[in-house]
Amino acid sequence: MFGSVRWRLIWIAVLITVCGFALVPETIVDEVTGESERVWPLKLGLDLQGGMHLAVEIFDPENALSGQDLDDAVERTLTTIRNRIDEFGVREPTIQRSGNRIIIELAGVDDPEQAKRIATETAFMEFKIVTDGQDFVNALERIDRAIVNEVGIENLRVTTLETEPEVDLSDILGAASDSAGAEDPADEESPASEEDPANEEDPAADSLATGGGDAEPADGDDAGPADGDDAGPADAADEATARPLSALLGQGRILGEYLVPQEDQPTAAAWLEIEGVREAIPRGVTLHWGVEQVGAGAGSYVPLYVLEAEPLITGDMLQDAGPANRDPTFNQPIVPFETTRRGARVFERGTARNISENMAIVLDGRVQSYAVIRSVLSRRAQIELTPGASFQEAQELALVLRAGALPMPIEVVEERNVSASLGEDSIRQGRTAFIIGIVGVIIIMMIYYRAAGILAVGALLTYVILMLGGLAGLDATLTLPGIAGLILSIGMAVDANVLIFERVREELASGKTPRTAVDAGFGNALSAIVDANLTTLITGIILFQFGTGAVRGFAVTLCIGILASFFSAIYVTRTLFIMYLNRRGSRESVSI
């Protein structure tokens, strides 16, 4: 049944229809703008449409991970990055493991830096209580001595604060009259308020009030060494040398927050990373820099927070986050979040012990914002970003929290950006090479093999449809090396026809009839065609298994092309030959 011409044509038509349907452009609707776009279903790789290529590794400078631990960390990192990129909305990303590296290819991204930030940000979140800073102030003399001993007094070239930075809470927080005892109309309606009975019944109503307004700044006496208003220029210079860190600190907006001049922050941060200095920091507290810059008076400052070392909860207790929104009162970005059941119990106990205290939200070691705990918080609450933060930052924060934190920090070991214009050049050059190859093959086959060459050209066109449709149907990605594989497989498809036609010529020369010669030619050439295609197919599979990036793109195209060329040369060409012979007399010669 399957050997008759009718059934042969039916099977060929079915395959061509299926592959042709896979090549029909899709209509993609943008959920934000509502605009529709017709997209060719065959995916283009990074080198054809532009985008970003990253190779990342686990950051383990001390080689603490090895064997199973390293393998587990890489797998968890791979899963987290894949979840983040899926949330980010990149169409058809390529994220795969190569040894202990993770290869990330994002084709067609509009903002490579944003994509890189989302993919590589550790996103380890902690909720910590802001201390009153007194232990830190008491230890400042010891910390200063450690800095002088480690760095050397001759290497200390720092400025000193001549006056305390004048912090205007109304400018910074947008709430000039907020205080711990003042009634705020927003508080009366807020589900975080303790007087709201709904708060006891519905834990979904918990929220964090914006920080900074409920604690009085420490007066100059409490600030200790940060206060140097009465010192003359010479005394100030001596203090800047003998007490380098103390000379840089000014009291912040709340207890436990200190302001460091922006230009001196890198120097202060380097001091605090010295091992001897870290040992001088009091036990039970940790120092964290803020992400914002505080304008106070005529200067710009970076806040340094003194936090309890033990967090209330960590990001692994978060179950969901987002979507980002805006606070209706102050119009600043907020990110709602929901904890796990275990996290809710831990959060309740921690916030119950710290009512009216400031709680800092720490992401990757930097304080994103702080807030006053006005009631016991349970399973649902919200993170208020610092004033001046953009809504996009809130969306990114929600995304990385929702996708999860990376188990270990990672480092980018290779980065490559491909512009869309370079991709268009590659497509144009690849298209030119493809057309030249096809046209050249068609002309040579028609001139050398005459009528048989025309039949081979018909089979070759069928091969092209099967090839492209197979790539689209299997969701493969067409890359520049893939185009090379496509052109190579065209040559292999023609090579099979050449073997068959030469065998047919030999049979005709021996005096056989055209039909017998054609049957014998196809039969005798089959073993050589199978051997050639099978060995190349095995090579392509090995390249796909052990290669990465462009090599795998070449291998995929080559393997699909081999299967399509084998079908077109053996099945399609023979079907066309049978139809050709049926229209001629049994003794009439074949044009070959």
The DSSP helix count reads: 18
Q: Give a count of the beta strands, DSSP E runs of length 2 or more.
A: 22
Name the structural class: alpha+beta
- Tell me the span between the first and last alpha carbons: 29 Å
Q: Can you give the helix content as a percent range?
A: 40-55%
Mean pLDDT: 75
Can you tell me the residue ranges where pLDDT is under 50 for at least 5 consecutive residues?
A: 168-237
Taking the sheet with the most strands, its summary is: 5 strands, antiparallel
Fraction in beta strands:
15-25%
Strand order of the largest sheet: 8-19-18-7-14
CA-based shape: elongated
Radius of gyration, whole Å: 35 Å
Descriptive labels:
592 residues, 5-stranded antiparallel sheet, 49% helix, alpha+beta, 18 helices
Task: Please explain how this structure is put together.
The chain has 592 residues and is an alpha+beta fold. It is 49% helix and 18% strand. The protein is built from 18 helices and 22 strands. It has helices at 5-22, 46-49, 67-88, 112-120, 134-151, 169-173, 185-189, 198-201, 220-223, 233-242, 265-272, 275-280, 341-352, 391-403, 420-473, 480-509, 514-546, 550-582; strands spanning 26-29, 36-39, 43-44, 51-58, 94-98, 101-107, 125-129, 209-210, 250-251, 257-261, 285-289, 294-296, 299-308, 313-314, 318-321, 325-326, 333-339, 358-363, 366-372, 380-384, 410-418, 477-478. Helix 15 (420-473) crosses helix 16 (480-509), helix 15 crosses helix 18 (550-582) and helix 17 runs antiparallel to helix 18 (550-582). The radius of gyration is 35 Å and the shape is elongated.
